[in-house]
Batch of 4 targets.
Target 1
Amino acid sequence: MRSNSGLHGHKYAIDAVVAETAIRQPRPVVMLTSDTDDMKKLCGDRVHLVAV
């Protein structure tokens, strides 16, 4: 997980767990999310994000 994402606190705890789970999956990984901005900060380019 990217520690320099700038996202801190309990508000982002669930996003952090989801991002870490996605990063640990065999590639390619696609994540459907309504919050592409925060997930991009957390996952970087390791997960393909699709806005829903």
Note: The longest strand covers residues 30-33.
Target 2
Amino acid sequence: MTKDMTPLLGYRLKLAQHALHRRMEEALRPLGLNPAQYAVLAELNARPDQTNANLAEHAFITPQSMQGVLAKLEESRLVERRQDVHHGRRQLARLTPEGHAKAEAANAEVMRVEEVLEAAVHPDAVKDAVDLMERLHSAMCKQD
């Protein structure tokens, strides 16, 4: 017997995540970015000098995939990497001045998408919605 997925919370959450990803792709496309590239720019804008592995975690991709993302951002002169003086085999990434400008422009576009999300929630309930997402995330991260 086939189960109707429509009322399931996980299914609804995945539908919303998929729609959000599509909206972000549309918003970032005119800037020549995709969501993974934006995640890197936003993260480096907030916290420079990060490793490939750390950036991959924040962008929800594998370290192997992040290598390609960083290479493309370097090629576009938005990111530069240098050797970590404390750990010879690691490279640390940081934004170039062009990268900072692109990160700010992309952030403005992503904030427009965020406004669409928040408009779907009663203004008094945004914090509750964020708290719910955090509880759902925590529940999924718990080890049995």
Note: The first strand starts at residue 79 and ends at 84.
Target 3
Amino acid sequence: MIHHSLNEIAALIGVIYEAAYDRSRWQKVVTDLGDLFDGSRTCISRFRRNSVDAVMSVADPDLLSQETIEALLRDPIYGTSKAEPVGVACRRPSAADEAAFREREIWLNCFRPRDMHHGIACNLASSSDAYWFVDIQRGARQPAFEDADVDLLQKIAPHILRAGQIGRNFQAGSLLALSFSHLPFGVVVVDGHQRIVQMNEAAETILAHPGSLLRASGDEIQAANFKDAQPLRKLVANACAAYDDLMPGKGGTLLLRGDREQPDRPELLASITPFVHAPAYGLAPEHCAMIMLREVSFQVSDGFADHIRILFELTPAEATLAAALAAGYSLKDAAASSGITVKTSRTYLERIFAKTRTRQQSQLVALLKSTEPFR
């Protein structure tokens, strides 16, 4: 057993937690872990039935080859290693199995050529088709690992486990934020007082529009019209409410409408739903509300005719007529705007009914509007 100072161990633990937020730091974790234990090889691996990913102190692509994977799957050490409890450090192979292990294929073709004579390891996570572990090896000219080495890895293992959990949560949060940013409709996350926690670019565009029915006032989201202010406040408060500190509220939907004198001003449909924001400093998560915003308009979006043509396998002429009907035109006006006669439009309409499996014009318009892409 090599004696280490608390400063050395603390420095390694610091790097482990840095890796929770910066994936590139796991390479330094592996290197520093090997140095702390005077190991010849160290790795953190994810083992699957058909592949292995690893961060290794010694680059060795052949160790991750399909041939090596298949050899390891055939060896009893795979089953016994995977069955070890998560977070428990141990020798691999165990002292009882070491003699038999050194006569088997995996030792002769994989471990011995790489001078992997003594190992300690710890499982980090397990699922139905994979398991993650950290492994430290020493060569034939180095001393075998002692109980004190296993005890030290046991003390470090919880920090590796925790950093892995933090990293997964952090990555999930980053992916969620990235997903929000690319959604084709507005998303605003607010607390119970309508203070803005996060919003995507589409929501920023909607709120920044001079005629928008919702606006950002300071760090709060507010309805532009007084009549919408109270319903919005109630829906947000309900979505942020917690029952028994566990179950969130229900939220709801609000249609924000402009003045009659401004018929061209787009209306907004606000769908408000509970959203649990990430906890901080060990405190309970804050209950927030997510407001999803869509503009409501009689007009169909650009490219709508092409959209329904592909969706329902319409001809270009049929799609043009159907798009005009979806925009609110009568059949006579839709025919005129499409440059065809009313008689021809009726023929097209019958074909459109057959392809969309509708029977009347009102059903057709309702179906087409329901398929309109987000703007």
Note: The chain has a mean pLDDT of 86.
Target 4
Amino acid sequence: MSFPVDRIALSLLLLACVILAGLNWLQDHPEDNPWAPLTLDEQPGWATGRKLAALRADLVACRAFLDRSGLPNRPLPPEGAGACRREDRGPLLLPDATLKPQRAEATCAVDAGMAFWLRHVVQPQAEAMFSSPVIRIEHLGTVNCRRIGNGAKGAWSEHATGNAIDVSAFVLANGRRVEVKRDWKGGVDDAAFLHAVRDGACGSFSTVLSPDYNAAHADHLHLDQARRTGGWKACH
């Protein structure tokens, strides 16, 4: 069965219009465009999780993200040996807040995850609940050459390569301090804030472990960028 040439041409024209409209829409919605380079200003969308996950396996792309976002990107020489060899290491510096202790080293993926989480989850939640931004994040460390649970055997912790951070508290501009250990089951607002930022961290990190996971995490949120097949995540 044949079609008149004009009907074929019209069909091709309509198809081209649909494709063009789709491309224009994707250009205006980078958060839903898997081919658009990730930036810190991008609002979370359908494609954002995949873009963040891709940074865990691609150091060049991760550092390019930091550059595009105007974040400090000063990689340090590799150090360590064996399971604690750190090929990817740099100073952890946040765009919208400081760290305490200030000196912290981590992988590029942790740096990127912290920046995106702080910009799109922590700060909006702080403004919504307390009408004040977070100015400091307190942590218990990033690098620790040890196995999970500090045992002599078993899998190595992501801390062994600086691919994790343990967040213990948030300090707001109005002087309020929200502490994981004290406030996880404390005041309604403080507890709600901590649970909200824990849930939101699951979009920026591969692993999120909170006091709900076990007693070992009673005083912090463990955030890491472990690389897993199939995009599987752990969020507790």
Note: Residues 3 and 9 are 10 Å apart (CA to CA).
